[in-house]
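Hey,
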Amino acid sequence: MSNERYSRQEDIVPRQRILDCKATVIGVGAIGRQVAIQLTAIGVPHIQLIDFDKVDLSNLTTQGYMYKDLKRPKVDVTAEFCREINHDLQVEIVLDKFKRSTPVGNTVFCCVDSIVARKHIWDALKDKVNFFVDGRMSAEVLRVITAYDEKSRSHYPTTLFTAEEAHIGPCTAKSTIYCANIAAGFMLAQFTKYLRLMPVDPDIQINLLASEINVTMV
């Protein structure tokens, strides 16, 4: 049964390599929830979900939660959904903000909504994980930044501008579920390249409205 489950992706997602991965998803909002679902679907055996937030009404449209999920912790709801995809999945739930002392897996998907939080997470984990990917989104613009080797690890800190420099847009233009899905997909695409020992794009920026994509090489 397990062989049949993954048969259509076996040339894209190396089964043995993925079995060695414990994936940590920090933030299970718009992008993070989609990342967790996609990681489960491709066969990551162990996922850790870190988030302190609960589902509110606005999350139903932008993050794909359901009405019955209102006021429940996002980590609990996402864990239940992922287990429905794969009953054998090991899910670890951390209903809290990320702390320096929080143990994580060897693969980290950073899906938080604050540049300050990103800097805090990077400072804590930069020397502790094999693969680190950060998904960012504002309205219909997304950015995926990956750190996995010496050059990309040197590049990542240059993307951590101060909170004062962050773009401030109207609160009604923060996110859409389709942009979040695309961001998550690009994060997973970089992850599967890494698993296949292929070159990974360290910095991708996509403007959906303008149909533009830019890849920064380091």
